[in-house]
Design a protein that fits this description.
This protein is α+β, with helices and mostly antiparallel strands. It contains 5 helices and 17 strands. The strands form 2 sheets. Strands 1, 2, 3, 4, 5, 6, 7, 8 and 9 form a 9-stranded mixed beta sheet that branches. Strands 11-12-13-10-14-17-16-15 form an 8-stranded mixed beta sheet, covered by helices on one side.
């Protein structure tokens, strides 16, 4: 679905930096069965009401820097529909914003991310071998092809492929896909994602403080992984979560949390959970105009 927005982004000027050091390292050697391209091509899909669309895009870029592609109204699904579509590219991560002006056809609207792959058919076959289910079969769009798949625990994501290979600069910081699951599905999901994405577990805390997810007095399991698709934080709990926990799709890393929250507030972003310590980071939860809820964090400096 975000193929249209990515096409429009080819006319963008250079992205302005956010307050974080650029990552400069040679790309890792990847297996022939690793179909990832890079986290700068991976986007969170944000659906907002058409009347909130402009305010959301403006607030997101004002908070994290960067710029947005030209806005348009397109059909981005294989069945009849129309949506405003725009890509917000920032050094802290990218979102594909959609403001449908018609009803949203199934299964769209429930997918959390779009991941660019090198070979769609091979990537879909690999995903299915590792336990994913297609929610819709692959379909063409004006500049490529798309599919929506579901993993254990109901984790929906889009895979897409471009006819012409895009070229975007590396991110200053890689965002974190935040996935909330119960223990019933967590082990299976992690196994599936590790197999498909060639992901590595960077930490696995089986007794993280529950206060980090709004459950003081409890503990939860926090599994952090990284792959060519970016970072992932699997949050394993009893599912008895107080709002807004579990509504956040993505965590954005910044260099200075306080200054980022100041910019966010000035852009009309509401702080839902104030900045607080979470182990090796300071974190907060915010809500952008239009209702998009996100986590923002900064590493604790030694």
């Amino acid at each position: 679905m975000n193929r249209i927005a990515l096409l429009m982004a080819t006319a963008l000027v250079a992205i302005s930096p956010v307050a974080a050091p650029a990552q400069s390292s040679a790309p890792p050697q990847r297996s022939a069965t690793d179909f990832s391209v890079g986290p700068q091509y991976d986007t969170t899909h944000v659906y907002v009401a058409s009347e909130d669309f402009d305010r959301f895009v403006a607030s997101f870029t004002a908070t994290f820097g960067g710029t947005a592609s030209k806005q348009g109204v397109f059909q981005v699904t294989p069945t009849d529909s129309k949506t405003k579509s725009q890509l917000a590219l920032t050094p802290a991560g990218t979102v594909s914003a959609f403001g449908f002006v018609t009803p949203i056809p199934v299964p769209f609207g429930a997918e959390r991310t779009g991941y660019l792959v090198t070979d769609l058919d091979a990537a879909v076959a690999s995903a299915m071998r590792h336990g994913a289910t297609r929610l819709i079969t692959s379909f063409p769009d004006p500049i490529g092809r798309d599919v929506v798949v579901q993993w254990a625990g109901g984790v929906n994501m889009q895979l897409y492929w471009h006819t012409a290979k895009p070229n975007y600069p590396e991110l200053a910081t890689v965002p974190e896909n935040r996935i909330y699951l119960t223990a019933d599905a967590a082990e299976q999901f992690v196994k599936q994602w590790r197999g498909f994405a060639h992901a590595k577990v960077t930490s696995d805390d089986r007794a993280a403080p529950g206060a980090e997810i709004g459950q003081p007095g409890k503990h939860y399991r926090r599994i952090r992984m990284t792959s060519g698709y970016g970072k992932m934080n699997v949050i394993v709990s009893d599912g008895q979560l107080a709002w807004p926990y579990g509504r956040d799709l993505t965590g954005y890393e910044v260099c200075d949390l306080s200054s980022t929250l100041v910019k966010a507030t000035a852009a009309g972003v509401e702080t839902l959970v104030p900045a607080h310590a979470e182990g090796d980071r300071q974190a907060a939860m915010v809500r952008f105009p239009g209702g998009y809820i996100a986590e923002i964090h900064a590493p604790v400096k030694p």
